[in-house]
């Protein structure tokens, strides 16, 4: 099949999937008004692949049939291959300003990671390794839009899934059947679920002996019988793109995935009860998903830096030394991130060739980028002041009784009132609206509890190397 058009993607969502929003069943997600903006955005990403000006950048020939497929599925053996991935994913991230953490590129990269790790996945049962390679090829050649669900329901975090008051709450294996496995329970946080074709159920929490029933990895279509999605409140409203420039276009949605005795065919099962494979699958992968996350996070940081500079210029604060220092700090962070993306190419290439670890890539994604984005948010908030709050609507500017007052009193240093208000509307949507608040929470917990992710680096072998430097100095005479 090869790459799809936006219209083909849109049609693929009309499959009768079970999605609930605001207490009601949404039978056709493409007809639900709060979903229109994000579906249009994703459809636009699919259409970009068909644009002759961009197809060479965004696609490569499928090894199966030579048809163009998304370059986010490319298995790169050289630095040049990885550079191609970077350029394509950077282009797509810029199309969404880095604001969509689960656009198709991410899961394409994750499935590619898993396919490269097929020998490890199939070490105990070879058929599971074969399954993941075949599934990767199907995703690549059908251009499906995927999402994942990873996290157990947050009930009692001090206990594992088998120790909960209701050990059946977390998704678990019920039994095997002739056709596959029967699973029951729930997973979260299924970002992009209403707008995807396939759901990847993957490992996230480390599983312990005795939790084999919870050590699962498989994939199912979104319309699979027994699979239900209960969405959070949509952030896109009936407000105009002027009033909510981000919410109306990039609200990915998040959902609770409920598995009510779902049967998964054997050919779509990748891990079943294998604690080692569940806990270490990605440590045997080249890191394409990590790389995509770093690229997207860097693009978003650039966008936030540009927004901070625009806000400062609009209100005439760029000559103040302390403001220049704040903006300079943000620009420096963005430049650091740019350099880390380039360094990531070498780390991923070496990891693919030599099996080395991806500590720098993980540190960039899990530690540096969230901190830099948080700092950018803080600076934008400080610079904006009350301008973030006093933002009339597009309708106010259309009312001749008050439009002249707005033009007189809300203009900026070098901007008309409408342009200044539009800029601050953007800043408020980025920071203060539901969309912006979710963005901050999402990025901070991107890889789980940030305290846990940071603690992982203390257990890195690099600690021994750094301590040895001190020991060497103390032993010198």
Q: How does this model look, in words?
A:
With 477 residues, the chain is of the alpha+beta class. 49% of the residues lie in helices and 12% in strands. The protein has 18 helices and 12 strands. The chain has helices at residues 6-12, 36-48, 55-58, 79-95, 104-116, 118-121, 126-142, 247-250, 275-280, 288-314, 321-354, 359-384, 394-398, 403-409, 417-431, 434-444, 450-458, 462-475; strands at 18-21, 24-25, 59-61, 68-70, 146-149, 172-176, 180-187, 198-201, 216-221, 227-231, 255-265, 269-272. The strands form 3 sheets. It has a 6-stranded mixed sheet with strand order 2-1-10-11-7-6, with no helix packed on it. A 4-stranded mixed sheet has the order 5-8-9-12. A hairpin with a 3-residue loop joins strand 6 (172-176) and strand 7. Helix 10 packs antiparallel against helix 11, helix 10 (288-314) packs antiparallel against helix 15 (417-431) and helix 11 packs antiparallel against helix 12 (359-384). The longest helix is centred in the last third of the chain and has 34 residues, at 321-354. The chain is globular. The model has no long low-confidence stretch (mean pLDDT 94).
């Amino acid at each position: 099949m090869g790459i799809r058009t936006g219209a083909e993607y849109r049609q693929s969502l009309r499959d009768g999937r079970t999605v609930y929003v605001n207490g009601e069943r949404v039978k056709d997600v493409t007809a639900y008004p709060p979903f229109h903006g994000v579906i249009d955005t994703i459809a636009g990403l699919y259409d970009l692949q068909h644009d002759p000006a961009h197809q060479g950048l965004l696609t490569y020939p499928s090894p199966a049939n030579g048809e163009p497929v998304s370059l986010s599925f490319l298995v790169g053996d050289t630095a040049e291959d990885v550079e191609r991935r970077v350029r394509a994913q950077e282009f797509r991230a810029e199309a969404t300003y880095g604001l969509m953490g689960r656009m198709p590129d991410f899961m394409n990269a994750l499935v590619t990671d898993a396919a490269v790790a097929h020998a490890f996945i199939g070490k105990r049962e070879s058929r599971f390794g074969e399954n993941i390679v075949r599934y990767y090829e199907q995703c690549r050649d059908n251009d499906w839009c995927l999402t994942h669900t990873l996290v157990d329901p947050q009930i009692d975090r001090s206990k594992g899934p088998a120790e909960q008051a209701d050990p059946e709450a977390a998704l678990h294996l019920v039994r095997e059947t002739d056709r596959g496995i029967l699973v029951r329970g729930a997973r979260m946080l299924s970002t992009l679920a209403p707008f995807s074709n396939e759901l990847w159920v993957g490992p996230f929490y480390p599983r312990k002996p005795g939790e084999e029933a919870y050590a699962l990895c498989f994939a199912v279509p979104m319309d699979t019988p027994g699979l239900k999605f209960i969405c959070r409140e949509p952030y896109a409203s009936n407000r105009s793109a002027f009033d909510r420039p981000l919410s109306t276009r990039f609200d990915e949605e998040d959902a609770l995935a409920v598995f009510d005795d779902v049967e998964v065919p054997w050919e779509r099962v990748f891990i079943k009860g294998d604690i080692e494979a569940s806990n270490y699958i990605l440590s045997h992968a080249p890191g394409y998903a990590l790389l995509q996350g770093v690229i997207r996070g860097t693009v978003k940081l650039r966008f936030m830096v540009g927004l901070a500079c625009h806000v400062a210029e609009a209100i005439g604060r760029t000559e103040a030394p302390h403001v220049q220092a704040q903006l300079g700090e943000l620009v420096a962070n963005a430049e650091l991130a740019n350099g880390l993306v380039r360094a990531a190419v070498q780390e991923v290439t070496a990891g693919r060739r030599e099996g080395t670890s991806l500590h720098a890539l993980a540190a960039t994604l899990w530690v540096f980028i969230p901190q830099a984005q948080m700092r950018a948010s803080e600076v934008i908030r400080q610079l904006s002041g009350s301008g973030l709050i006093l933002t009339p609507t597009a309708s106010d500017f259309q009312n001749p009784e008050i439009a002249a007052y707005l033009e007189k009193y809300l203009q900026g240093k070098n901007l008309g009132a409408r342009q200044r208000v539009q800029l601050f509307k953007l800043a408020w949507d980025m920071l203060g609206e539901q969309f912006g608040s979710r963005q901050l929470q999402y990025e901070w917990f991107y890889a789980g509890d940030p305290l846990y992710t940071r603690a992982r680096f203390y257990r890195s072998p690099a600690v021994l190397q750094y301590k040895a430097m001190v020991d060497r100095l103390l032993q010198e005479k």
